[in-house]
Amino acid sequence: MTARRTSFYLDKQNAKWLGVCSGIADYTGLERTWVRVGAVLLTIMGGFPWTLIAYLVTAWVANPKPFGLYESAEDAKFWQGVRQSPTRSTRDVRAKFRDIDRRLADVETHYTSRNSSLANEIDNLR
Questions:
Q1: I need a labelling partner for 105 at 20 to 30 A (CA). Which of 7, 31, 51, 88 fits?
Q2: Number of neighbouring beta carbons within 10 Å of residue 109
Q3: pLDDT value of position 76
Q4: Residue 47: CB atoms within 10 Å
Q5: Ranges of each domain in the chain
Q6: Do 15 and 75 contact (CB within 8 A), yes or no?
């Protein structure tokens, strides 16, 4: 069974405590440190005990991040973009395929069309 790359996972490999903040950072693409600072500030500024309860419930409910979920840092960045804006990601992928299709059509046209300048040069050499 393959892991879903659009799901939230606890990031135990980069965890300080249970991996919730690093999981949020991995899911959203934000810096881990800023997520941790935000969680601490939210707790200090009146979120206690609800932030701690939410943290513990999330740590209890969420699955740990599978090892080797992303093949590279570029792959991780791509999937973070998909989670942030699936519509934009779909539009970008369609635009890339459209561009590749257009370039292939140009290559095919160039390859199958008659190259008159080259033919004229060959005729002049005869």
A1: 88
A2: 9
A3: 87
A4: 15
A5: 1-67, 85-125
A6: no
CA torsion through residues 101, 102, 107, 113, sign: positive
Q: Which residue in 32, 29, 22, 30 sits closest to 6, CA to CA? A: 29
**In which residue ranges of the chain is pLDDT below 50?**
1
* 65: helix, strand or coil: coil
Question: Which amino acid would we find at residue 101?
Answer: D
Each residue of 18-29: pLDDT tens digit? 999 999 999 988
Please give the structure tokens belonging to residue 84. Answer: 């942030």
Q: What are the tokens at 52?
A: 């701690």
Neighbours of 49 (CB within 10 A): 9
pTM (2 decimals)?
0.67
Paired strand residues for 10: 64
